[in-house]
Amino acid sequence: MSDHEYTPKSKVGKWFNDRLPLLTLANHLTDYPTPKNLNYWWTFGGILTFCLITQIVTGLVLAMHYIAHADMAFDSVEHIMRDVNYGWLIRYIHANGASMFFLAVYIHIFRSLFYGSYKSPREIIWIIGIIIYLLMMAAAFMGYVLPWGQMSFWGATVITNLFSAIPLVGEGIVTWLWGGYSVDNPTLTRFFTLHYLIPFLILGLVVLHIWALHVPGNNNPVGIDIKKPSKDTVPFHPYIVIKDGFALLMFMIVFAFFVFYTPNILGHADNYIEADPLVTPAHIVPEWYLLPFYAILRSVPDKLLGVIAMLSAILILAALPWLDTSKIRSAVFRPLYRQFYWILVADVLILGYVGAMPAEGLYLLIARVATAYYFLHFLVVLPILGFKEKTLPIPLSITEPILGGSPNLATVKNKESLNK
Amino acid sequence: MSEKKTNRRDFLFTATYAVGAVGVGATVWPMIDQMNPDASVKALASTEVDVSSVNPGKTITVLWRGKPVFIRRRTEEEISEARSVSLNDLKHPEKDEDRAKDPQWLVMLGVCTHLGCVPLDQKGDYNGWFCPCHGSHYDTSGRIRKGPAPTNMEIPKYEFVDAKTIKIG
Predict the structure, then answer these.
(1) How far is A126 from chain B (nearest CA, A)?
(2) If pLDDT is split at 50, 70 and 90, which confidence band does A415 have?
């Protein structure tokens, strides 16, 4: 944070700012000192904010035409597609926007994993991020139910039935969630309500996420603590604004490609068939962004343990700052962790692939091995690696390796303790 | 203040917390309970089905409380297959005699006990039902034999009103 006190130049500005210091906040955001070595992997925070706003705006418009009733929902979505002016465009942006949102969030999460952004002092930023991710999954799932197609209906049935695995109270919870004895109109109306609510909860958490980020400041590719402001930092505006803006444009090209050229490729044809409680589609698969967890669920042959494994796979991330015992943040200086990191990336991709395949034969075997490895990575590899790994020497400052620039005393001290 | 004595103020605090907790509970409960099945959903509790046209080896599916119910008129082989299984081979041991009052007729909820999909008729390794979602195999009595489902398919409350009508619920 900048040390200097900000005073607005104009008299009106000063009068206002004394009563509500919004201009001080704006000044903090523009001057906010940012590490000068941030690469393009750091632009996904801004891209994600764009995704959230896109979903809220397009969702608001869709809600003006959508009817949340089991008898009318499917037709109202077709009405949006065929009759409403630009309805097809708005719906395709919203539907593909969900996928783009998850694409960006996965890159954002794996960026954190590579550069150790979840480590002290940024644990709270990370945990808020995990809560946002969970809410995103809830919002995406409920949104997928709203068109009331076959995949909507049966996806809702399968996912709500996960709660029936809870001993004793499970059945009661499922009936309560449904508001009946099966997924039906009461389920649809409450899912619509919650689907509308969750994005605003996410918005609130995003504010906390950024607030918590602005306390220690950004991590950076080198992963060392830096002095702020210093030769190692640049002000957020215009440097980062321009860089984020350029990355956002590139991202929007990908986004637009899906919306205009293959708007249905990430969906399922079955969802253009109206929900039928008597017929389950031959092959139920969730949306691509949930596949790795779905694979974990199916790889365990016991119902309750499968559900526990799937939830643990997500919740284990919240404990990551304490499971990773290494003091060095960036994988750049962790030769062994770097290899395990890429194995984990491959492992998650494999889980995603087998999650889309039938749960039998070789696929099931692969899913089981990959599930075991996923937990092994977090519960065994990371805690041990922190003690065993011989890390590379870290620089004293971002500029030091290139310019021999001024080392930050805190970093020097930190480095001495790390290198012993 | 070496020794702590209970005084009037402590009593007032405790009493206030207790009344406050009851008040919060009484306010929150309606908000939670409103999501449970409402009176109109509960009212649709029973269905009568005409089964006169169902021949041996045929299954009909009817909707009861929003869920499919399989009504199968079983063949002799199916019945003997279901009745000859040793209870030790079953994950959820139940005698076929207890599941099908009249051995010809099997009436059960067509809902996989794993995650609620509708299993397919005459499929799977046990000539009964097979759930396409996560691969559970059921036998000719609707009992779980292989796969992730924890229990047999549920038998709803039903009765024969007359020779050709079954009342479910």
Answers:
(1) 31
(2) low
Sequence-distant (≥ 6) Cβ neighbours of residue A174 within 8 angstroms = A160, A161, A163, A164
Q: What is the pLDDT of residues B60-77, one digit of tens each?
A: 999 888 889 999 999 988
What backbone torsions phi and psi does residue A417 show, to the nearest 5 degrees? -70, -30
Alpha-helical runs (H) found in chain B: 8-33, 39-43, 76-84, 96-99
Cα separation, B70 vs B106, whole angstroms: 8
Which tokens belong to A371? 């599930």
CB-based contact A397:A226 (threshold 8 Å): yes
Q: What pLDDT does residue A1 have?
A: 42
The answer to whether residue B134 is catalytic is yes
Alpha-carbon distances of A387 from A284, A337, A395, A412, rounded to whole Å: 44, 12, 21, 21
| Cα angle A340-A345-A349, degrees, rounded to a multiple of 5 | 145
Among B92, B114, B134, B137, the active-site one is B134
In whole angstroms, give the CA distance from residue A290 to residue A138.
Answer: 11
SS3 B147: coil
The whole-number average pLDDT for the span A102-121 is 97
Q: How far apart are CA B159 and CA B164, in angstroms?
A: 11
Burial profile A378-410: b = 16 or more Cβ within 10 angstroms, e = fewer: beebbeebbeebebeebbbbbbbeeeebeebee
pLDDT of residue B30: 94
Q: Are B138 and B124 in contact (CB under 8 A)?
A: yes
pTM: 0.89
The least confident of A10-14, A218-222, A265-269, A283-287 is A283-287
Beta bridge partners of B130: B120, B137
What DSSP state is assigned to residue A183? S
In a mutational test of the A interface, the residue from B115, B125, B144 whose CB has the highest number of chain A CBs within 10 Å is B115
**Is A306 an 8 Å CB contact of chain B?**
yes
In whole angstroms, what is the distance from residue A48 CA to residue B19 CA? Answer: 46
User: What is the percent of chain B where pLDDT is above 90?
Assistant: 37
Q: How far apart are CA A42 and CA A330, in angstroms?
A: 14
- Rounded Cα distance between B51 and A78, Å, is 38
Q: Are A376 and A301 in contact (CB under 8 A)?
A: no
Both tokens assigned to B140: 């000719």
Q: Which of A162, A183, A277 sits opposite B68 (nearest CB)?
A: A277
The conformational region for residue B50 under phi > 0 = left, psi -120 to 50 = alpha, else beta, is beta
Share of chain A above pLDDT 70, in %: 95
CA pair distance A170, A178, nearest whole angstrom: 12
Structure confidence by residue, pLDDT tens digits, B77-93: 889 888 888 888 888 89
pLDDT digits (tens, 9 = 90+) for B43-53: 877 888 898 88
Q: How many helices (H) and strands (E) does chain A have?
A: 18, 2
